Amino acid sequence: MNINAETAAKLRWYKEQKGISITETIRRAVALLDLVERESAGGNEVLLKSRDGKSVRQLWLV
Q1: How confident is the model at residue 61, as a pLDDT?
Q2: What is the pLDDT of residue 18?
Q3: N or C: which end of the chain has fewer CB within 10 A?
Q4: How confident is the model at residue 1 (pLDDT cuts 50, 70, 90)?
Q5: Three-point CA angle 25, 26, 29, nearest 5°
């Protein structure tokens, strides 16, 4: 896999935060991408809501 330094740093950060392998990190990233793409393809919106419930944003992948 060929990725740029910024992407590699983000993967390493997540791996270290969660205490998991890089393989598991990539598996989770792919699973999340799959979920978002399937929901969007099914006509659903993927929303991010702040903890206090005052802010809701729609997640868009292009």
Answers
A1: 84
A2: 98
A3: C
A4: confident
A5: 90
Strand partners, 46: 59
Q: Distance (Å, rounded) from C-alpha 33 to C-alpha 35?
A: 5
Torsion, Cα 37 41 60 13, to 10 degrees, reads -10
46: Cβ contacts below 8 Å, ≥ 6 apart: 36, 39, 40, 58, 59
Mean pLDDT, range 20-40, rounded to an integer: 96
Query: What is the pTM (predicted TM-score) of this model?
Result: 0.81
**Greatest distance between any 2 Cα atoms in the chain:** 40
Helices (H), the chain: 5-18, 22-41
Q: Cα–Cα distances in Å, from 18 out to 7, 14, 22, 25, 59?
A: 17, 6, 10, 9, 23
Q: What's the distance, CA 61 to chain centroid?
A: 11
